[in-house]
Amino acid sequence: MKQNIKTIDYEWLTKPTGDPFADIGGYVIQYLWNLYPDKDIVELIEFVTKIYVNNWEGKLHTFF
């Protein structure tokens, strides 16, 4: 996995929290990093957002 951003604790992103919603997000991050080791966290977020919006026609709330 690419770790371009020095202010992010990358281990924290995939560490179990006890919150099922947050934990599944960590598992997804780890899975995607195994598939796309050349991407950093920002590139992974952009990648899955495009799938959500373009392929699944999901709507993102303007808050995000």
Fold and architecture overview:
The chain has one domain (10-55). The mean pLDDT is 86. The chain is built from three helices and no strands. Helix content is 55%, strand content 0%. It has 64 residues and is mostly helical.
Class by helix and strand content?
A: mainly alpha
Number of strands: 0
Shape: globular
Largest sheet: none
Number of helices: 3
Helix proportion = 40-55%
Poorly predicted runs are: none
Short account of what is shown:
The chain has 64 residues and is an all-alpha fold. It is built from 3 helices and no strands. The chain has one domain (10-55).
Give me some keywords for this one.
single chain, mainly alpha, 0% strand
Strand-helix topology:
Layout: H1 10-13, H2 20-35, H3 41-55
